[in-house]
Amino acid sequence: MARGDGKLTHNLFDDDKGPQDACGVFGVWAPGEDVAKLTYYGLYALQHRGQEAAGIAVSDGSSLVVYKDLGLVSQVFDEATLATLQGHIAVGHTRYSTTGSTTWENSQPSFRTTPAGTGLALGHNGNLVNTADLADEARAAGIRGSSMGATTDSELLTAMLAARPDVSVEQAASEVLPKLEGAFSLVFMDEHTLYAARDPQGVRPLVLGRLERGWVVTSETAALDIVGASFVREVEPGELVAIDADGLRSQSFAAPKPKGCVFEYVYLARPDTTIAGRSVHSARVELGRRLAREHPAEADLVIPVPESGVPAAIGYAEASGIPYGLGLVKNSYVGRTFIQPSQTIRQLGIRLKLNPLRDVIRGKRLVVVDDTIVRGNTQRALIRMLREAGAVEVHVRISAPPVKWPCFYGIDFASRAELVANGLDNDGIRHSIGADSLGYVSLESMIAATEQPKTRLCRACFDGEYPIAIPATMGGKHVLEGIERSVAVPQLLGREPERSSAWAEDALTRP
């Protein structure tokens, strides 16, 4: 296994990072194919879902090898590395942490050796909410924590799946999966079989695709496209899929209670992905149309905040009749991995990511379309920059409702106290960011744009209605009972300075 030096994980924009997803997963069973390269390209297509670490596990039927490191997919893997990963089964993972710190030990796929001496590798997108109870159960059963220092729910899950000496991995999964609470889209493997599973709510996406000589399971349909796989169907909520030399088989481990994450449509998924039969790009364009009808503006030009604001800005321009234009240029090479900046560079802030086209915006009344406002720092700096470049008016339009509640199912927002929409009304936010006007799309319009019934969507970050109960130990009593609502849930799972860095290990190893 590769071990990185951890020096390329500084986030230049930690003071106002946007919502981040907790990973992308990819699995392939394809004898005769170069599964390591297929997985590499699949992870490349899922890079937006996590930029902190990447890894691939491969089996040739007799041995299972895992290679992972901190950094982007293109930083972790090269031709020489991929050439050493030979086999016909692979799982891959690209990580953004919501539980556990950003360390090599917490990168995935996680790996365990079973009592029979075989290997088990697992990649997880989502977040479990009953990890403390699971850790107690594992400890009581004599399952020990990782000797390598991993502290994630994924590591605990891998340990539980690999611990049974008397049953197969498939049987262990059918017994363990019903005990899990929270969001989980999983790909895992042993030497001979590829597995995939999705929580009963289906919070995070997971799809099944067909290759000429095999199968693919991955987070988004866009990853199927890049490896030449045809879309077959979604992995159903509460379904466990197994693929081996005997073909594909499926079983239900829990009754489905669909609650797909609405934020996938708004921001997280790639625009060229399809979720529940709905094109994400089409949903975002429709969000813009509805936003224009709900919050019109007298303006000369509609511009997006690249890249996530582009489809909604197109829809806004189409419905309003105001011309669409490119007013901001994005530096595509500024990501989460960045050399430590000097104070002078840090003060430039958003200009490292975005720069205005002065000739386009000078003297114009602008409608600026973005997907969300988190703390408001980015929008504040952006509006100031546009005014300095000559904009006469700046009207901000947001293609999602105000984010007021934390996510416990795999998205890393700011803490509740830091969410600007939680402490200020619309006019207060407008004044805070310096906009001439501010409008958010309504919850009803957002739901309508997805073309999914409201009852099949998790909307908790917008309306506080959590489809899976949140334990009080994770801030649930503050969120669900309304007690001390101004108290932040400490940086949401993975941002507690003490507990999240060691709690899973302690729970497994304490006497």
Automatic annotation (TrEMBL):
Q: EC number(s) for this protein?
A: 2.4.2.14
**Active site positions, chain numbering:** 23 (nucleophile)
Q: Where does [4Fe-4S] cluster bind?
A: 261, 407, 458, 461
GO terms classed as biological process: 'de novo' IMP biosynthetic process; purine nucleobase biosynthetic process
| Cofactor, how bound (note) | Binds 1 [4Fe-4S] cluster per subunit. Binds 1 Mg(2+) ion per subunit.
Catalysed reaction(s) here are:
5-phospho-beta-D-ribosylamine + L-glutamate + diphosphate = 5-phospho-alpha-D-ribose 1-diphosphate + L-glutamine + H2O
Principal EC category: transferase
InterPro entries per UniProt: GATase_2_dom (IPR017932), Ntn_hydrolases_N (IPR029055), PRTase-like (IPR029057), PRTase_dom (IPR000836), PurF (IPR005854), PurF_N (IPR035584)
Q: Where would I find the Glutamine amidotransferase type-2 domain in this sequence? A: 23-246
Residues given in the record as Mg(2+) binding sites: 308, 370-371
Q: In which pathway does it act?
A: Purine metabolism; IMP biosynthesis via de novo pathway; N(1)-(5-phospho-D-ribosyl)glycinamide from 5-phospho-alpha-D-ribose 1-diphosphate: step 1/2
Q: Report keywords, A-Z.
A: 4Fe-4S, Glutamine amidotransferase, Glycosyltransferase, Iron, Iron-sulfur, Magnesium, Metal-binding, Purine biosynthesis, Transferase
Q: Which cofactor does it need?
A: [4Fe-4S] cluster; Mg(2+)
GO molecular function terms listed in the Swiss-Prot or TrEMBL record: 4 iron, 4 sulfur cluster binding; amidophosphoribosyltransferase activity; magnesium ion binding
Q: What does this protein do?
A: Catalyzes the formation of phosphoribosylamine from phosphoribosylpyrophosphate (PRPP) and glutamine.
Write out the similarity annotation: In the C-terminal section; belongs to the purine/pyrimidine phosphoribosyltransferase family.
The record's listing under NCBIfam families reads:
purF
Identify this protein by name.
Answer: Amidophosphoribosyltransferase
Q: Which organism is it from?
A: Jatrophihabitans endophyticus
Q: Which gene encodes it?
A: purF
